[in-house]
Amino acid sequence: MTPITVVEGRRVPLSNLDKVLYPATGTTKGEVLHYYAATAAEFLLAHLRDRPLSFLRYPDGPDGQLFFTKNPPPGTPSWVHTAPVPHHEKEQARQVVVQDLASLMWAANLVVEFHTPQWRAEAPGTADRMVFDLDPGAPATVVECCTVALWLRERLAADGLEAYGKTSGSKGLHLLVPVEPTASERVSAYAKTLAVEAEKELPDLVVHRMRRSLRPGKVFVDFSQNAAAKTTATPYTLRARAEPAVSAPVTWAEIEACRRPGALVFLAGAMAERLDRYGDLLAPLTEPDRGRPIPDTP
Q1: Helix 142-158, helix 184-201: angle, nearest 10
Q2: What pairs with residue 165 in β-bridges?
Q3: Does pLDDT of 154 surpass 80?
Q4: In this structure, are strands 219-222 and 206-207 parallel, antiparallel, or unpaired?
Q5: Mind spelling out the 3-state secondary structure of the chain?
Q6: Burial letters 272-291, b for 16+ CB under 10 A, else e
């Protein structure tokens, strides 16, 4: 029988709590749910709130089947909030919007990575943040990503924009920038301009095109996640990797000091102490009126 827990007055089934999801560390599903409930909930919810959720599910762990969906999964409780979103294939499509702890635990029980767009449900396609996904092509690592991140920080600052960093939870780094609400197409165009500029300034280190043959030894500055249809791993989500790595916010001092590939890897078990020390390093992204206007692109 699936155990039922009550979260904020809602009955939430929590299944297979002893199942090992991350064999490399022996981390069970129960430990994953504990991370979300006891460690990450307050901070994760702030970044999920009002944003349509896409699910990357891995119910048998990262070595099992992975599948990505934007539609509410079968059996979604009636009390889980959903919102209409513009999908090309369905005019009346809806997606889950996680607004509270009960909904978070229901979603976490499905074993998911949480992915969200750069816009909120009440304003589809109007971005209030910009993202750069810095993805290293071997033998480049997160060390090279940090060098590129520092260049982008200074370039963004020259345009009056402030960047915040987090690990991807995989090999790379994400830069997030609060912006004045702006059409996603315009944000994408500006982000592409900076990616192209980064390649010109750092030709031995940066590539802005996705072609795999161009990427060995360089950092791919992926600006495409600013498109309205794209999503990015939400801060504090666990990733479907060999270990329970978190997409964790990092300080600029940590980025500046990064000298080895494993320097910016944070597992679920380390996050409570880290949150006690820093709080939410990405809190400015959730503050109203924090975004600054992006300049016009040529």
Answers
A1: 110
A2: 175, 250
A3: yes
A4: parallel
A5: CCCEEEECCEEEECCCCCCEEECCCCEEHHHHHHHHHHHHHHHHHHHHCCCCCEEEECCCCCCCCCEEECCCCCCCCCCCCEEECCCCCCCCCEEECCCCHHHHHHHHHCCEEEEECCECCCCCCEEEEEEEEEEECCCCCHHHHHHHHHHHHHHHHHCCCCCEEEECCCCCEEEEEEEEEEEHHHHHHHHHHHHHHHHHHCCCCEECCCCHHHCCCCEEEECHHHCCCCCEECCCCECCCCCCEECCEECHHHHHHCCCHHHHCCEHHHHHHHHHHHCCCCHHHHCCCCCECCCCCC
A6: eebbeeeebbbeebbeeeeb
Q: What are phi and psi of 82, to 5 degrees?
A: -130, 160
Label residue 193 exposed, middle or buried (CB < 10 Å: 0-12, 13-18, 19+).
middle
What digits encode the pLDDT tens for the residues 241-292? Answer: 999 999 999 999 999 999 999 999 999 999 999 999 999 999 999 998 899 9
Tokens (6 digits) for 224:
């495409």
pLDDT digits (tens, 9 = 90+) for 90-143: 567 899 999 999 999 999 999 999 999 999 999 999 999 999 999 999 999 999
Instruction: Tell me the C-alpha distance between 96 and 53, whole Å.
Output: 5
Question: Taking the CA of residue 268 as centre, how many other CA atoms within 13 Å lie in the half-sphere pointing to its CB?
Answer: 28
In whole angstroms, give the CA distance from residue 38 to residue 33.
8
